[in-house]
Amino acid sequence: MKASLAWLALTAPLFVLSVFLLTVTIRSVARTMRRAVVAVVPLCAEQTLTLESAGEYELHAEGKRFSRDFGWLDFTLTDSSGTSVPLHTVWLRTHSSSVSRARLLLRKFTAATSGQFTLRVQGIRPEPDPESRLVVSRAVRGAVVGHMLAIVALSLLTVASLVGSILLLVFQRSSVE
């Protein structure tokens, strides 16, 4: 009976700690993704973007869930001197979604310098949804993957500590009776 109380003294605080860390980690990944956004522009044939610094960026489509506005789009990006910036296709696309909206990674690119860039889009449907837009963000896939692994590990720890605490209480109660 003493051993089960000692284990309960370990599993109950472990549950509380894992729930707290899980909450902090989920907030952190949301904050990381929100802070990474550099530009949000409507889906139209040509846009001018301002990138404050050189580096790796990602181009996302954002709109209503199951929208067909982004089906066959082709993108070109040029810097202020007219030099083409290669847009690389992403084979393992990441996405995030809520009940009504979804964001899907389409392309990634590296800006050699900061400044003005022109994004041209071909293949837009005749009447796209006015809520459909393109989002340019800093590349944060590594940070997001790290957060997701932490969320999985903390979720497992939360469930294990909860189940362990419940089993200890059940077995302690049955051994007393």
Please explain how this structure is put together.
- By secondary structure, this protein is of the alpha+beta class.
- Helices cover 40% and strands 34% of the residues.
- It has helices at residues 2-36, 141-176; strands at residues 37-42, 46-51, 55-64, 74-79, 84-85, 88-89, 95-97, 101-111, 115-122, 133-138.
- The strands form two sheets. Strands 1, 3, 6, 7, 8 and 10 form a six-stranded antiparallel β-sheet that branches. A four-stranded antiparallel β-sheet has the order 2-9-4-5, with no helix packed on it.
- A hairpin with a 3-residue loop joins strand 7 and strand 8 (101-111).
- Helix 1 (2-36) runs antiparallel to helix 2.
- The longest helix has 36 residues, at 141-176.
- It starts with a helix and ends with a helix.
